[in-house]
Design goal:
about 190 residues, alpha+beta, four-stranded antiparallel β-sheet, 4 helices
Length: about 190
C-alpha cells in the first residue's frame, strides 16, 4: 500500500496545537465528570444518613408517645387523681409564696409618680410562671395615673398595662381610682 504524500499538493498542517487543546479539554471534561459522580455518590450517602436519622427519630418519637400514653393512663386512675390534685394545689401555693413582696414594691416605687397612691394590689401566678398584677391606684387627677402607665410601659419590668376602669372622686373617696392590670416580669 502506497501513501500518496505530495507536499506540493497537500501542505503541512499544524495539528499539534489542536490535538493538545482537545486533549486538555477532554481531561477537564473527564475531571468534571468524575467530580460530578463523586458529588452524586456523596449526596446519596447523605440522603441515606438523613433517612436513617429520620427513622431513628420516628422510632424514638413512637416510643416516647407510647410511654406518655402509659403514664397518662396511670395518671387517669382514680387512686392517682387525688395525689395529682394535691400536687397541683401545692405547686400553686409554692408559686404564690415565691413572689418577693420587697422586690415587687421596690420595682413599683421606681415607676410610681409621687402623686399616685397604691390603694390595693393582688398578684397572681399564671401557668407560665409569670406574675399578673391587679392594682388599684389613686390620684388627685388623671394625669399622674397616665404618667404611671407610661412609666410602666417604658420599663423593662412591666408589660403594657391596661386600665380596667377608672372611677371619679366621690364624697367618700376624694381620689380618682383606677384599676390597672399589668404583667410583672419577676421570675418565680
Amino acid at each position: 500500500m502506497k501513501f500518496p504524500i505530495n507536499l506540493a499538493s497537500e501542505p503541512f498542517r499544524r495539528n499539534r496545537a489542536m490535538i493538545v487543546a482537545s486533549s486538555v479539554l477532554a481531561g477537564i471534561l473527564v475531571l468534571t465528570l468524575s467530580l460530578l459522580i463523586l458529588l452524586i455518590v456523596n449526596e446519596r450517602h447523605q440522603k441515606r444518613d438523613v433517612r436513617e436519622a429520620t427513622a431513628q427519630a420516628e422510632a424514638q418519637l413512637a416510643r416516647l408517645a407510647s410511654e406518655q400514653s402509659a403514664l397518662e393512663a396511670t395518671m387517669r386512675k382514680t387512686e392517682n387523681a387525688d395525689v395529682l390534685e394535691r400536687s397541683v394545689f401545692l405547686n400553686t401555693l409554692i408559686a404564690r409564696k415565691g413572689i418577693s413582696w420587697t422586690r415587687l414594691f421596690g420595682d413599683l416605687e421606681s415607676v410610681m409618680p409621687h402623686s399616685v397612691r397604691l390603694v390595693a394590689i393582688r398578684p397572681q401566678a399564671d401557668p407560665k410562671n409569670g406574675i399578673q398584677l391587679e392594682m388599684t391606684v389613686g390620684s388627685q387627677s388623671v394625669e399622674p395615673v397616665v404618667d404611671l402607665l407610661k412609666r410602666m410601659e417604658g420599663s423593662g419590668i412591666f408589660s403594657v398595662p391596661s386600665v380596667n376602669n377608672c372611677l371619679p372622686p366621690s364624697q367618700s373617696e376624694p381620689l380618682y381610682r383606677c384599676r390597672v392590670s399589668v404583667t410583672y416580669a419577676q421570675k418565680l
